[in-house]
Each structure stands twice: as structure tokens, then as C-alpha cells.
Amino acid sequence: MITRQQLIHPRDELMQTMDRIYRYRMTTTSGGNLSIRDENGDIWITPSRVDKGSLTRNDIVCVRSDGTVDGPHPPSSEFPFHLATYAARPDVRAIVHAHPVALVAFSICRQTPDTRLFHQAHSVCGRVGFAPYALPGSEELGKNIAASFAAGCDSVILENHGVVIAGESCAHAFQRFEAFEFAAKTIIKGRLLGRVRSLSDSQLELAHSRHVALDSFEPTSAHPPEKELRRQLSEFVRRGCRQRLLISTEGSFSARLGDNSFLITPTQQDRELLGIEDFVLVQSGRREAGKKASRAVFAHQAIYRKHPAVQAIVFAHPVNATAFSVTSTPFDTRTIPESYVFLRDVARAPYGVQFQAAGEIADYVSPAAPAAILENDGVLVTGSSVLDAFDRLEVLESTAEAVINARAIGDVSAMPEKAIADLRQAFRLP
């Protein structure tokens, strides 16, 4: 079956991907380049010296397999390393090169980020490599990069330059790129808090081997409450991606529809591109036919069963809050009134509890403690509505960022117990 993504023209796919990278502030107006190798062996590539913030489909250049160029601009000056990489790896169909700040920080320290922080990043990013410096646009740089990919690498740091990512499609390369930068950002933020913890082989296998098997059913109709929740989930998941609270390959969002039913994000689909039809209805332990529910579906189900007041759940990876998840530094919400009122005292769940079929994850949240830090797996937030859960997620990330920033200024001072008691009484907190 041909997917919608496979029907998008290379010009449009490159333009849309570059727009997203630029909008996420993962490249600059003049920096970075993308390419796709099509079925004919032609290479479609972003042009040289064209504003990345206003790129159009007509700006995209096609370098034919015979070397002729079709387009109004010359191809990117970095075309030689794209060509060399494709020659070294016949399986590669797309390449992303850019200068996102966290990965550049690693490149100028001549280090590579450890993707073992997260099971998903380790899986998505593939094998990580490092290519020695050479003049941008030179044949030597092409040889250095191609050698890394020929050795089996998928995500390569360029010494004092940036990063090159290869994938089996443009969407796949982008997802690797995003996950790699996310891991790099989390390491940098985490090191400001303390020692950063990586996952062992057995811990990585625990996540990799989990299996979601649900019987399916054919819904007969969708009533207005379901339609409204689909709209809300679609809008807030997209907003979460654009605000960098979610990334395209990680996290899940659900909303309760009834006592034994809820809607949840699907697995293996780009979060920002989800439409109302993509969310999966789960009813009495069965999934909507023709769709795959998030692999976190059992965790969501357990929380709804134990806590009737919970109406929405988010598992997410906002970078500052996630930095707390990869260190042992306690997360204190007693910083400003909003943080405590919205979040109360945030629990810390040990790694892997969210994967357990018995649903132990439900023990780490309650109406009196609506959020939890998940060791090496981001955060869990619950709410009385989709909006409430999203609002709490924003507050959680803002609080985490403020605390990390405050540590660069001086000692962090928490509010005294009397202030907390006054807040509990004034806002009638459970």
C-alpha cells in the first residue's frame, strides 16, 4: 500500500521539512541543507544561498543522475558530501545537514551525545559517528563523512561544524535529527543538575521488548463528544510539538471518553502531523480496527481505571523537565505559587514501571499529585481535561527551566512551609 508520505513530491517534502527545521530554530537562514535521492537516482537538494525561512518548492534543485542540473539556483555548496554519502550507502534515501545548537556544542567539544539516555532516542538515532574536520564543500569533507556512513553510522557529528543524518526517507532522517538534538540538549541541561544517567543493555531491552496486543473492533459511529475530543487532542498535540514539549517520535496523549473508553495517539506516526482520524479509540480493552495504539496504552488504561477523576493523560519529553529524569536531582515545585498549585509535589517513578503490564504506574499519580518524573523517560502529567493536562505540562516545563536557570545565578530558595500551607488552604488543594 502506498502511503500519503510516499505521494509527496520531493520538492514539497524538502520544502516542508526545511520549514519545520527552521521553525524549530534548528538551523539558521543560511545554514544547513537537505536532500532526497529518488527511485531514478536523481538527487533533489536545497539550493545554495537562498533564505531557509522563505524557501519555496520552486527553489529546490534536481541534480540528475547524469550530472545535469535542473533548477533556478545552484545546488547547495555541500552537494559533494551528499553525493559521496549516497555512493557509500545504497540504502540511504535522504540526508539532513544542519547546525542545531546542542549538537554544534558537541561538535566543537569533539564529542558525541550518548543516545542511551532514552530507549527511543537510542533506537531512532541508530549508530552514532564522528567525522574529522575538512573545509566545507570540499571533496575531503565528503570523503570523511562518507567513511563514517560506510562504517555503518546513521547520525554523524562533524568536527567543528554540525551534524549529518541519513535515513531511508526524508521523514525518517528528520526524526533521527530531531531525536539526536533532543538527546544532546537533555545531556547539556542534565549536566547543569548533576551526573547524567544512561540506560544499561537490559534496561534498553525492557523497553524494546514490550508488546501491545489488543483485539480490534469496528466502531459503528462517532458521537459529538468523541469528535470534540479528537479535535482537542489533534490541536494540543500539534501545539505541544511546536512548543517543543513533545517531539515527533516520543510521547503519548489521551483523553477519557467514558468509563471504559478513551482516545489515544497512535504509535509510529509523526506527532505534529496527526489528524482527527489518526487517534485510536480504545474501548473495553480493544482498539479501533485498522489502527495501532501507542505502546503506552496499558499505562494510560491503568491510570484511568485507578483514578476516575483523571480525564486526560500526557507522557511527554520537554527537555528541561526531562533533564531531571536523567539525573538524581530532586524536582521541587515549591518555587512560585503557580508551580505548586498546578503540580503539588511531583513523584519520581523508577525506570521501567511504565512498561509493567500490572499497571503500577498508576500508583505514582493521584488528584493530590497529578504529575510524575519518569526516570530516563520524561514526564507523566494528568488532568481534568485535555486543556488542564496540557496546561500542567507547560507549567512543569517552565518550572524546570526556571530552576535550571536559577542554579546558574545562585542558591535556589523554596517557599517556606507556611506559604505552602496558605496556598493549600486558599486554593483548597487535596
From TrEMBL:
InterPro entries: Aldolase_class_II_sugar_metab, Aldolase_II/adducin_N, Aldolase_II/adducin_N_sf. Residues 12-188, 231-404 form the Class II aldolase/adducin N-terminal domain. One of its GO terms (molecular function) is metal ion binding. GO terms for cellular component: cytosol. Gene3D superfamilies: Class II aldolase/adducin N-terminal domain. Keywords: Lyase, Metal-binding. Pfam families: Aldolase_II. The keyword Iron does not apply. One of its GO terms (biological process) is pentose catabolic process. Coiled coil: none annotated. The keyword Lyase applies. PANTHER family: 3-OXO-TETRONATE 4-PHOSPHATE DECARBOXYLASE-RELATED (PTHR22789:SF0), FUCULOSE PHOSPHATE ALDOLASE (PTHR22789). This is L-fuculose-phosphate aldolase.
